[in-house]
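TL;DR need structure tokens for one chain.
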Amino acid sequence: MFYILSKLLDVFLSPYTWGLLLVAAAVPWRVRDRSPRHSRRRRVCGALGLGVLVVGSLPPVSNAMLWRLEHASTPTYDDSVTYDAVILLGGVVDDNAMRSSHQISFNDNVERLIVTHRLLREGKARVVIASGENPEAAVLGRQIEDWGIPRDRIIIEGRARNTHENAVFSQEIARARGFERVLIVTSAFHMQRAAECFAAIGMKVDTLSVDYRAHDLMAPGEWVIPRVGELSLSTMVLREVSGRLIYRVQGYAKPVAGT
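>> reply
TL;DR here they are.
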């Protein structure tokens, strides 16, 4: 049930969804809704709906929200260390596109994969644990192997459906193989929740945030122009913040000192 509810967050936390609902509430669907008594309610709903859509689509709003999310935790990666394992968290493969095209297709989180491969290639980590529900984990492992990393340095963890399970199942592998120094790699916006999930199960890890997307300065004139793509970005931020809070309530995440 928790897994299903977590997947509905994209709908319920979207400014686009709430904007449309409020605008729809402003339409006089029934004759009695056209009465003066209901006109004020419709005007308020219409104004709120348009306000949500406009504010959620402004670049400085989505950028500011994302900036705070990406800098909510400080990476602890130590360049002088050779890690026993680097854990590559899933969420990189576009399953729908892959099923339709019958080709490997990656999404905007692909830097997780690229950076993990570089760590392995440069000898910063001995092995990788590719963690995510199959077929994604298998696809990630195969891609790393195609890029020249020997198969015996690639471990596939194909059961995890969410970040909590990434931590639980990766810990099982680490314990079984005696890994002590472990590094997790994920997108900056997702790192705090990931670190908290590993802290909740008592597994000490270092963190390397990648895939930064927010910037501190807007291009001249850009901030006044609402953009549809920013609604998607605002939704992603709200979903991540809500997910972090829900994980804490469920006991899946534990706040990490210093973040």
